[in-house]
Amino acid sequence: MPAAGEGSRGLDALVPALAAEFPDFFIGTQPTWNGLCLSAHDRDRAARPGVYAVITSDPDEMRLALREGGH
What is the pLDDT of residues 3-25, one digit of tens each? Predict the structure, then answer.
């Protein structure tokens, strides 16, 4: 886990790239009990099956989950 402060700047900086990579999802950050995490929420859940939301502090895990989720 990144040091305090380092993770928030790093994750916030990843949001634009992840949003461009996964345009079907709202990408952002949110605080959790474990620190700041990335979050992805499907823009139109009713229109297609697959992953609705992913919350993680690991951008690679987020990419994997969203790719495997059928989007």
Answer: 444 455 688 899 999 999 999 88
pTM reported for the whole predicted model: 0.72
Is 53 part of any domain?
Answer: yes
Per-residue burial over 30-66, b = 16 or more CB atoms within 10 Å of its CB, e = otherwise: eeeeeebbbbbebeeeeeeeebeebebbeeeebbebb
> Domain span at residue 30?
6-68
Residue 50 lies in a domain: yes
Number of Cβ atoms within 10 Å of the Cβ of 11: 24
